[in-house]
Amino acid sequence: MSPRATVHLLRHGEVHNPDRIVYGCLPNFHLSETGQAMAELAARELERRAADGANITYLAASPLTRTQETAAPISEKLGLPIASDGRVIEAGNHFEGLHVNRSELLRNPRHWPKLVNPLRPSWGEPYREQVDRMSEAIKSAAAEAVDRGGDGAEAVIVSHQLPIWMARSSIEGRPLPHDPRSRQCNLASLTSLHFDDISAGTRPRIEYCEPAAELYSGVIQLPGS
């Protein structure tokens, strides 16, 4: 029988972004003070699970600043180095660097070609490409965790809302085009994928939790995060 594994997809904490910029893959967008507290709460939750017997052996994160900073307290508490994985980076977005103002974007003709096909979507990386790269990263993380810890080992991947939601939507068989407001992937949330057999190609069981829910009031939630 092939080994079991769990891969936790952790979204980063709140970003310091008072100008409400679509930051996407832009560098040097740091966690806010609240975001740092969110990362700490997520790390404590994983530390608690490890104390209860979870064998967490591998930690990876998107190379972007906000995900690396979210991974840092996990690395400290669990004694794991952070592996940087470009496959779990935020999706590219034509509107990176712009202020979030839907009516302004619609009035500017230079943006219109990027708005013609929301099913792909035409403004950024295709949904299917996000699924493919996330799937490969998840498989790699599961295998790495098992190589280090044996049957039932666990991995953590710190990523971004849209790639995490695309991975989950694909696993659950939902259409990839969606209303962003429908995503169940809040700041510093954990989407846990439980694989009964990492080599069988079967769908994992999914659990979702929000270790930082107490800090959600008043936080800034923008696309491209």
Automatic annotation (TrEMBL):
GO cellular component: cytoplasm
InterPro entries: His_Pase_superF_clade-1, His_PPase_superfam, PGM_Phosphatase
One Gene Ontology MF term: phosphatase activity
Domain of life: Bacteria
Gene3D superfamilies in the cross-refs: Phosphoglycerate mutase-like
PANTHER family in alphabetical order: BROAD-SPECIFICITY PHOSPHATASE YOR283W-RELATED (PTHR48100), PHOSPHOGLYCERATE MUTASE (PTHR48100:SF51)
Entry protein name: Histidine phosphatase family protein
Native organism: Rothia koreensis
